[in-house]
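Good day; I would like, with your permission, to put a structural problem before you. What I wish to show you is a protein chain and, alongside it, a tokenised description of its three-dimensional fold. Thank you for your consideration; the sequence and its tokens are set out here:
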Amino acid sequence: MNIITKYDSKIRSVAFSCLAIVALALFGSPALAQSSGNFTAAVQTTQCTMNTMPGLPDSGALNDPNPVNLLTTTIKTPNSKFTTLLIRPSLVTGLFTNTGADANEYSGNSAAVKVYVTLDGQPVAPATSATPGIIYDQRFQQLSLADASAMATCAMNNDCDVDVVMSTLAAHSFDFVAPDVGGGEHTLAVEWRFECTNNTGAVVPCTQTYTANTAGACAGPGTVTVTQVKNFSQDTPIVIAP
């Protein structure tokens, strides 16, 4: 009886070892499973608001000449040439333009919101070193007054009033792709910047005064998600081209 028990115990031990080997082959090691599912995100809750009345607050860092940071984080990836990061910043953006002109003149300005994504200090496609910012929202507005006689008539009656004001609020989402990032720890940064131009087309700080021939922009709320994915050799390769 003892001999049969010992023999049965050995059979169970061998069976358990075989099951452990099969499970390892099917599911891999815990470290490998974790490394193939990296994910991070950031959420900014500030509402995009532009108040045209003096003294009222604005939000979205209007008139800030520096990039506004949404996310700076690190992500650790496995040592595989197939590792790719999918980065998706989403923003609500607002634009404001106020354009005025006199007789026989034209005037124009523009406002824009640009998003910058860098990985280890380098721009992520489709951005390049030459064009590191991706335009999420932009508007150009121009007003022309060429009828001098009509202006002369209204001037005599003191009732000339020509003004164009436009405001836009929109939500945008865009995918940035960083292929073959390699193994190790990487630093990811996502920023947005407000860019405005004056009547000559020169870049100027966005304004908060909203007088004639000014432009403004704001952004928020915003989110960014970063997901680690795989592009295996049997799949169609990722192509980045002009």
Observations:
- The chain is about 15% helix and 45% strand.
- The helical segments are 2-27, 30-35, 148-157.
- The chain has two domains: 1-35, 38-230.
- The first strand starts at residue 39 and ends at 44.
